[in-house]
Amino acid sequence: MVDDSQDILDLTRVILETAGYEVFTALSGKEALALLDEIHAPHLILLDVSMDEMSGTHFLDILERRHPFILDQVPVILFSGLDQITEGRASGFIRKPVDVDRFLDAVRGFISRQDILQAR
Q1: Which end of the chain is more exposed for a tag (fewer CB within 10 A), N or C?
Q2: Do the Cβ atoms of 90 and 42 come closer than 8 Å?
Q3: 88 CB-side CA count, 13 A
Q4: Dihedrals φ, ψ of 105, to 5°?
Q5: For residue 87, what are the domain limits?
């Protein structure tokens, strides 16, 4: 989870960990890129679109250069309070604020779709 709001990171972490997911969080795109250098590819990246230091689009540009396999293998889901966004290289979009059940359904759906694609 990449978001420049600590409150959003904390809330999202609690929701996802309660559902049984291991969660890594980053307060900036720079922090997330450093984290991705240290861990194996995650099952999903939730990415805020509008961050102060580095936008979600800029993060995706750098991610594509540094870890192109991640964009091929890991769904990157844009997470934003905006009504509409262009997904571009992202796999999907979840709008903030979220209903907990709908949020978890969306996360499960993106992860299971990716698992199916990787099994082929």
Answers
A1: C
A2: no
A3: 15
A4: -60, -45
A5: 6-119
| 59 part of a folded domain | yes
Residue 1 in domain: no
CATH number where 22 lies: 3.40.50.2300
pLDDT in tens, the chain (120 residues): 999 999 999 999 999 999 999 999 999 999 999 999 888 779 999 999 888 888 888 999 999 999 888 888 899 999 887 776 766 778 888 888 778 999 999 999 988 876 544 544
- For 42, the token pair is 């995650």
Instruction: Look at the chain and report how many structural domains it folds into.
Output: 1
Question: Does 93 reside within a domain?
Answer: yes
Tokens of 50: 């509008």
Beta bridge partners of 48: 79
Check if the beta carbon of residue 112 is closer than 8 Å to that of residue 96: no
